[in-house]
Inverse folding.
């Protein structure tokens, strides 16, 4: 019997053009809680998915209790006692807590009839073992997120999991729920269950884990003994690279005194009391972790989510966009985070996508002026160097970078004054990134105002004139250009 | 940077293949039927087919818009029925002139479409349920108005719409052709057409591009009501008698025409020209089977199979694409 319950040995996962994991190895002892940290895109999720069979490693071995596997399947993982608690739960809201606990594996009276009573009795036992108070007959949909997560954990334990992998378990929970979840983790640990705990919140990692593995850009960086390490050290290891010549030089441009957008005690959509002033011609960077409330703010400004209270002033005028169309007419644009779902209409042509917001500006009795349509599209294809054989090419056939340029072109055609870029370079290659940065510079040179939301700290620092940082729906700090530094942003973002 | 740029991908090739294939199928059917029965290709019979499909054709334009945005309209048949009954009632019992009766009943059809739009877009009832409910309501309303018995005895001039000829071409065929031109114009030349494709392609992205998706849906269901109403007027004039069962089950024939014409049931794809072919195929198929003395129940079976083949092809290639 091996000393380790789970070993990942030299795991490599490559996708066409991308090395998601490069020779990552980790070891997990019985009853150990291992912290796994890294920036977004560092490869944490990909790594744990190799344990469940959701991702098949290109190279490397997975060793469970001394048994070697070149790949896992969900079935094999279950049989070998590996369970993963994902951020999205697999429960059915219309079934009771007990029924969810026995989902796919119910207790039956006979071949055809399930035994609800017996399941509820067993479920009560399972919950009691974990010291959690859930009424087994309660509908899952009526339980809080915290309890729903507990059901997932209880399910894993019922299936005799020896290794529990938790992917950002605290992300959806309230502070109180996080405390009880961590208690359950410790309880499980004392019973010999090994846990891999992934979190952005370093305080949780420090409280729970004995060792911490750091990943960065798909590389294994280091394993630290928790007791002997500090927050600063971890942050340095996570971000740890130098700023290279990744950003095009921007001509010194004096930022105007004119205020483009002012948010005054703005609350709603999960954000609370947001106060910020953005000057014309400025690039305001917004940093923070995923789910910190940055996209939510963008949605409110763009009229895509209701505002509970507070005020927005756009070039001195109080505004209340009730839908994106109204925001667009005011001169506000949004390049959304999820390009394929929200940004572009993939099955439509470049021509149609670019003109979509402004068709009604130049049509007579709804008939499109096709010469004008063509002129606009061709102008921005040229100006933004979009690589395409024709303006009639469907957007889905373009590369990610070119798709993003089509979306930008749409807003340039609409004469937008304030452009909100939500993770504008996610999933596009380095060369295309550089071009997007150049376009941002071009835009501010034309006196347009940019809000740049990004989880890539290099990008924030390289492109912003000023950075504000979000955590849990509030602004936790503001950094001027001379204060820019990755550690400072990370600290504000994780509220350490 | 070379990925896909300039190359036609599988999906586009399939779309183009579908657009051509449907015309091939139409011609093949016509050849088949003309070999089986000499009467099939006679001018007289071809004009009969034209008259028979005119109502499907007119109603299919609204249905095309609806299916383009991944919606459905099950109320078409009931709208046709109630337009029949109301228009006849106004002419026979209220002494309305022909134009007034047509105007009022068309307003009613458009109003029902508007109601569908409100249910789908403001209240948010799934289209299949909302239009199913209005189908039932107006089926009942039609019976109530006519008391379950046919209404007939119209002014002779009313016949022109459904039975007249201009330069040897049946008037209903001319109306259908005009409607197709209008439908094509809306889809290809106005920004509403662009909105329809955008909403059908990706509702969320469309909204974030500044399209008022709710209003667009409203417009589409209202248009569907209008075109169904027009089909109802043509039918009333052809049959010269308003039956409380006039439009029963019509929506399914119309849906068959539209999806057969290559409009994707999941929204976003389709051309007006394809729908023309879809309508003609159904017309030729029905007419040909009658000429060959294939019994009515067998015809149902054939039409059902045709529907499965048309939608099945579309869905099957989409399903495989996702893997």
């Amino acid at each position: 019997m091996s000393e380790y319950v789970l070993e990942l040995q030299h795991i490599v996962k490559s996708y066409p053009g991308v090395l998601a994991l490069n020779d990552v190895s980790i070891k997990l002892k019985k009853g150990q809680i291992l912290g796994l940290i890294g920036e977004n895109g560092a490869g944490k999720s990909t790594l744990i998915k190799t344990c469940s069979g959701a991702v098949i490693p290109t190279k490397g071995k997975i060793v469970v209790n001394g048994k070697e596997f070149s790949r896992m399947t969900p079935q094999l993982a279950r049989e070998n006692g590996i369970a993963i608690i994902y951020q999205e739960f697999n429960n059915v809201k219309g079934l009771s807590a007990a029924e969810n606990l026995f989902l796919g594996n119910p207790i039956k009276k006979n071949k055809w009839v399930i035994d609800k009573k017996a399941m509820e009795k067993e479920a009560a036992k399972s919950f009691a073992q974990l010291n959690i108070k859930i009424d087994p007959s309660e509908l899952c949909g009526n339980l809080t997120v915290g309890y729903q997560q507990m059901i997932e954990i209880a399910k894993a334990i019922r299936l005799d999991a020896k290794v529990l992998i938790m992917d950002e378990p605290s992300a959806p929970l309230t502070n109180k729920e996080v405390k009880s979840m961590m208690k359950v983790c410790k309880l499980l640990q004392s019973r010999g269950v090994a846990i891999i705990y992934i979190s952005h919140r370093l305080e949780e990692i420090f409280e729970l884990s004995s060792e911490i593995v750091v990943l960065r850009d798909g590389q294994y960086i280091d394993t630290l003994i928790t007791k002997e390490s500090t927050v600063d050290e971890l942050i340095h290891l996570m971000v740890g690279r130098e700023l290279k010549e990744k950003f095009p030089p921007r001509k010194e441009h004096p930022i105007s005194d004119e205020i483009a957008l002012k948010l005054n005690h703005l609350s709603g959509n999960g954000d609370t009391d947001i106060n910020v002033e953005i000057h014309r011609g400025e690039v305001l960077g917004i940093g923070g972790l995923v789910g910190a409330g940055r996209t939510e703010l963008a949605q409110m400004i763009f009229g895509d989510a209701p505002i509970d209270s507070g005020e927005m002033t756009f070039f001195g005028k109080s505004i209340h966009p009730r839908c994106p169309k109204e925001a667009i007419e005011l001169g506000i644009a949004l390049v959304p985070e999820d390009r394929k779902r929200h940004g572009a209409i993939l099955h439509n042509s470049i021509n149609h996508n670019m003109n979509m917001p402004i068709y009604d500006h130049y049509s007579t009795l709804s008939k499109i002026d096709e010469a004008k349509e063509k002129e606009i599209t061709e102008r921005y294809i040229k100006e933004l160097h979009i690589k395409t054989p024709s303006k009639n090419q469907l957007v889905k056939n373009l590369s990610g970078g070119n798709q993003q340029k089509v979306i930008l072109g749409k807003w340039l055609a609409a004469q937008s004054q304030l452009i909100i870029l939500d993770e504008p370079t996610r999933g596009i290659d380095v060369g295309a990134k550089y071009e997007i940065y150049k376009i941002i510079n071009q835009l501010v040179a034309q006196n347009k105002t940019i809000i740049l939301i990004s989880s890539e700290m290099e990008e924030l620092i390289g492109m912003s004139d000023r950075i504000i940082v979000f955590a849990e729906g509030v602004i936790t700090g503001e950094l001027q250009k001379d204060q820019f530094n990755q550690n400072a942003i990370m600290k504000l973002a994780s509220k350490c | 940077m070379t990925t896909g740029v300039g190359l036609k991908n599988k999906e586009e090739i399939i779309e183009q293949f579908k657009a051509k294939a449907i015309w091939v199928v139409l011609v093949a059917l016509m050849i088949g039927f003309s070999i089986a029965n000499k009467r099939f290709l006679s001018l007289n019979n071809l004009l009969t087919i034209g008259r028979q499909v005119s109502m499907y054709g007119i109603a299919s334009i609204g249905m095309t818009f609806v299916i383009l945005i991944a919606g459905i309209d099950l109320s078409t048949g009931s709208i046709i029925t109630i337009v029949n009954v109301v228009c006849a009632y106004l002419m026979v019992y209220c002494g309305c002139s022909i134009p007034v009766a047509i105007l009022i009943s068309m307003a009613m059809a458009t109003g029902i479409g508007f109601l569908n739009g409100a249910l789908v877009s403001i209240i948010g009832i799934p289209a299949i349920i909302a239009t199913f409910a209005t189908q039932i309501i107006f089926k009942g309303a039609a019976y109530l108005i006519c008391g379950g018995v046919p209404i007939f005895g119209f002014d002779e001039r009313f016949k022109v719409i459904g039975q007249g000829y201009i330069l040897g071409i049946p008037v209903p065929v001319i109306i259908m052709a005009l409607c197709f031109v209008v439908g094509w114009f809306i889809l290809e030349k106005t920004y509403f057409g662009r909105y329809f494709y955008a909403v059908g392609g990706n509702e969320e992205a469309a909204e974030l591009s500044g399209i008022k998706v709710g209003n667009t849906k409203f417009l589409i269901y209202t248009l569907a009501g209008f075109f169904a109403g027009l089909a109802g007027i043509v039918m009333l004039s052809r049959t010269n008698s308003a039956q409380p069962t006039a439009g029963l089950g019509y929506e399914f024939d119309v849906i068959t025409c539209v999806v057969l014409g290559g409009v994707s049931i999941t929204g976003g794809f389709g051309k007006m020209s394809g729908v023309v072919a879809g309508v003609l195929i159904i017309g030729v198929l029905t007419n040909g089977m009658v000429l060959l003395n294939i019994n009515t129940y067998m015809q149902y079976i054939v039409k059902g199979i045709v529907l499965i083949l048309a939608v099945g092809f579309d869905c099957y290639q989409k399903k495989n694409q996702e893997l």
